Amino acid sequence: MNVIGLDFGTTNSILSFYNKTNSVESWKMGGSDGKNYIPSILTFDESDLFIGEEAKNQLKNGNKESYSKFKILLHEKDKVKLANYNYSNKTPKDIAKLYIKTLIETYKKEQCIDRIDSVVITVPEIWLNDDMQGRMIIKEITDELNLPLFKLVSEPVAAGAYFLNNYKEQNQNSFNGHLLVFDYGGGTLDITLLETTNEHIKVLKRSGQGNNKLEIGKAGALFDEKVVMSLYKTTFGEELQRNTAEFYELVLDFEQNKISSKNIIDKKIEQYNKSKILDSEIFKIRSDKGTLFVKASILVETFDVILKNDVINALKEITAYFNICGINNNDPSKFRIIMVGGFSNFYLSQMAVKNFFNSKTDSDERFRINFTQEDTTLAISKGAALIANKFVKIDETYPMTIGIVLYRKSPTGELERFIETIFTKFEKVNNNSIKYSDEKIRNIGKITIYLDNGNSQYTIKLDKNPESIFPNASIENNKWTIGFNMDKNNFFYLHIKDELGKSTKTELGNIIEQYKDCLIVESKNDR
After folding, report:
1. N or C: the chain end with fewer CB closer than 10 Å?
2. Are 386 and 401 in contact (CB under 8 A)?
3. 94 with 87: CB under 8 angstroms?
4. 476/170 Cα distance (integer angstroms)
5. Distance CA 380, CA 447 (A)
6. What is the three-class DSSP state of 296?
7. Does pTM top 0.85 for this prediction?
8. What DSSP state is assigned to residue 471?
9. Alpha helices in 307-454 (DSSP H)
10. Helix (H) or strand (E) holding 24
11. What is the DSSP-derived secondary structure letter of residue 518?
12. At how many degrees (to 10) do helices 220-236 and 245-260 cross?
């Protein structure tokens, strides 16, 4: 079987597959001299279309039909924000679809295969809470491209799958315990607590940051842009305009230098943190106006201002759950911390996590991940390929609590509101079966759904016409039970059943986005 795992990333995408020796590897686009990391960039040049490194070169040369950051902008509807990233005539979905199509077709051509039998595409874990619309659009793209989607899998879960596989290969036994996956990429911060038992993975808790309302993402891409824009203004006394050849060239130049200069960046930041007077040049990037000198101070200050609090607060939210699960985070035989994603390799990201867990030495066994430094970036894609080949199983859990709002008479005769919970957040999914309410509703037209995603509680009043659902039903006397189920991609369905057992199903899909016009936020806990 030809199975693939696709880590569709904000900055780079990675596609992994099984080779002739039946081991998983990441594809190098363009042959043996190519790279595993395929820039998530697409350009048009007259009648030609380019992706990856070729598109990156076109973007550097100021090609006006150049597109990037389409993954993190998939759900964006603000026309001004989209225009800032060159999406005036085409949508991020249009470009993402073309990118994935071209990527898959190129892979098939270079691998000399006719078809793909199964594909797993990874999405941010935080999209289950904060950006469910992104998952819906990815699913639509796979349907429109007729891709044999096995399922959408969260990036931290895929990374956990790769850890489990490597651990078993190296130790001849399974890792049974808890994994804290710190996934920091170009667009999102995902921190996820997993429970693992004999190659089974279950999500216990998630936290992090998704899209930024004013800018793009809340991770590596935002950091790169902020550093470059700050240096530009300090050096030349004027704002660097987005959506210009100069902006793209400087950001790409900075990103490449940041990756290639990792060792010296680590040393310079460590020196600067010990003594602020040790703030020498690390590398430089050049624009038509002159040279921008990158020092440790601008890296530290930018990270501290825009990202550090997000990391610390998300870690606090996750670790507050440790007592509930009985987790001893000092026992490496039962607890490991996995840092994956391109931006997790950045010194300040790593130190924020290690300092939080009071890690004093590089030999801290809790951070031993059983794979190479390079695989910290490839792990998500490789884990997706493992899941596509069913080497690792995912015990699905509900991403939110869902139920219905009902009213009943109190002992004093007054109507009181109560919520009948149908299923609970992080409860294990039972074979995608439908769960029905115990209470019966006499008037379907007054269905109110209750949702709690952990950060907010919502109610949605659905306008249901009983006659259109059950034309022959006795509306006055009949009572209906309400049920829900969730499919393998975490999309929801509402079920209504009459007293004779006749039922109907409505696809809720991305429930919060789809019904936002009748959504009531009951409470919100600001992180």
Report:
1. N
2. no
3. no
4. 66
5. 40
6. helix
7. yes
8. T
9. 308-319, 322-325, 347-356, 375-388
10. strand 24-26
11. G
12. 110
pLDDT the model gives residue 313: 92
Which two structure tokens, joined as six digits, stand for 14?
């990675």
Answer yes or no: are the C-beta atoms of 69 and 251 closer than 8 Å: no
For residue 486, the one-letter residue type is M
Mean pLDDT computed over 81-93: 88
Two structure tokens written together for 289: 């106006």
Residue bearing tokens 């001893």:
328
- Burial category of 148 from C-beta neighbours within 10 Å (exposed 0-12, middle 13-18, buried 19 and up): middle
Distance CA 513, CA 415 (A): 31
pLDDT over 70 percentage in the chain: 89
CA-based nearest residue to 50, from 32, 36, 68, 35? 68
User: Distance between CA 363 and CA 202 in Å, rounded?
Assistant: 28
CA nearest to 4, candidates 16, 19, 20:
16
189: phi then psi, degrees, rounded to nearest 5: -105, 120
CA–CA dist 416, 362 (Å, integer)? 58
Structure tokens at 413: 């005769």
DSSP 3-state of 86: coil
- Give every strand in the sheet of 41-45, ordered side by side: 48-51, 41-45, 66-68
Burial of 30 (0-12, 13-18, 19+ CB in 10 A): middle
- Dist CA 446 CA 416 (whole Å): 16
In this prediction, residue 526 carries a pLDDT of 38
β-bridge partners, 402: 423, 451
Dig out the tokens for 404 from the structure.
């219905």
Local confidence band at 525 (pLDDT 50, 70, 90 cut-offs):
very low
Centre a 10 Å sphere on the Cβ of residue 114 and count the other Cβ atoms it contains. Answer: 6
Is residue 133 a contact partner of residue 513, using CB atoms and an 8 Å limit? yes
* Distance set, CA 229 to CA 140, 216, 292, 479 (Å): 35, 14, 10, 62
Q: Over range 317-327, report the average pLDDT.
A: 88
Q: Which residues of 57-79 are buried (b: 16+ CB within 10 A; e: fewer)?
A: ebbeeebebbbbbbbbbbbbeee
pLDDT tens readout for residues 309-321: 999 999 998 998 8
pLDDT digits (tens, 9 = 90+) for 179-214: 999 999 988 899 999 999 988 999 888 888 766 555
The two three-digit tokens of residue 427, written as one number: 């409860």
In 224-322, which ranges are E strands? 281-287, 290-295
Cα–Cα distance measured from residue 65 to residue 58, given in angstroms and rounded to the nearest whole number: 9
Is 368:332 a contact under the CB 8 Å cutoff? Answer: yes
